[in-house]
Each structure stands twice: as C-alpha cells, then as structure tokens.
C-alpha cells in the first residue's frame, strides 16, 4: 500500500516553491483572499502552468486577468497540456514560445520578410531621390511618393 501525506507548504519560504516543479509534486497553496493569491503569484517568477480551484467565477476571472503564466487550468490539473490543439509553453524564466499543433510549427519556423523590386532604369530614376546629395526637391518628391503608395504594399506572391 502506498500512502500519500499532504505537506504544509509555505509559498514564501519553502525551497520547494523557489523553482519550477516538474512533478510528481503538486503543491497546493491556499490564500486568505483573491488579492492575497494574486500577491503570492506575482511575488514569484511566472509559472509554466497555474491551476485555480474555485467555484466563484469572479475569483477565477480576477486570477486569470491579474496574473501571468504559460498555461492555466481551472478546477483541474494538466488538461491544458493534453489537448494537442492548445498551445503549450512558458513565459519569462519558464521559456518563450508555444508547442503543440500549429503552435509548434509556428514556434519552430522562421518568418522571413522579403522585399523585391525590379532593377531597371525607371526604378533607378525613382530611387535616385533616395541617395545623396539631398535637396528639398528630393525630400518633397519622396514625401509625395510615400503618401501615394503607403497603402499599396503587396507581399510577394500576394
């Protein structure tokens, strides 16, 4: 027979609460009020996951809106990590980026900006206004061109 004994955890002093925990330990921290819970959570680095147990939706909403964590689960544990369609990942010291499904693809992909313009005499004539020596005429011409085309940028292949 295996017996489990709950430990009393002091979130402000125990060594257990100083770093991220990757199980099999799940500390349960009680708070006297929702404001006290927010204070305790904010006093530590942002956790990879946070679990809220409450039947009071206003308490849950305040904790969600007043804290930051990689993931959050209300009235259960670890489910947010099991659903492949939900992003999983940390913030701050717990890491940046999300994994699972499309989030994995996006995290491990590099989105590169590519600008391509034709290299011909007409374009070079237009672009000559960008190069020194500068004058008021060049500045006014480039300002005019920018105002005309500022909403006309189309991505390559778009």
From TrEMBL:
Alphabetized UniProt keyword annotations: Oxidoreductase
GO (cellular component) term, any one: cytoplasm
Pfam family, one: Aldedh
Coiled coil: none
First and last residue of the signal peptide: none
Limits of the Aldehyde dehydrogenase domain: 11-113
Highest taxon, organism lineage: Eukaryota
Keyword Oxidoreductase set for record: yes
Molecular functions (GO terms): aldehyde dehydrogenase (NAD+) activity
Protein's name according to its UniProt entry: Aldehyde dehydrogenase domain-containing protein
UniProt organism field: Allacma fusca
């Amino acid at each position: 027979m295996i017996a489990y004994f709950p430990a009393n955890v002091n979130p402000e002093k125990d060594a257990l609460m100083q770093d991220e925990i990757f199980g099999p330990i799940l500390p349960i921290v009680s708070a006297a009020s929702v404001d006290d819970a927010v204070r305790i959570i904010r006093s530590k680095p942002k956790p990879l996951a946070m679990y809220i147990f409450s039947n009071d939706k206003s308490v849950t909403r305040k904790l969600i809106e007043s804290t930051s964590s990689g993931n959050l689960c209300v009235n259960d544990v670890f489910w947010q990590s099991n659903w492949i369609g939900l992003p999983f990942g940390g913030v701050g010291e717990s890491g940046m980026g999300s994994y699972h499904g499309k989030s994995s693809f996006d995290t491990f992909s590099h989105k590169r900006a590519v600008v391509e313009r034709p290299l011909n005499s007409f374009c070079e004539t237009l672009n000559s206004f960008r190069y020194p020596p500068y004058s008021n005429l060049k500045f006014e011409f480039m300002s005019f061109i920018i105002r005309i085309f500022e909403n006309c940028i189309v991505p390559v292949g778009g």
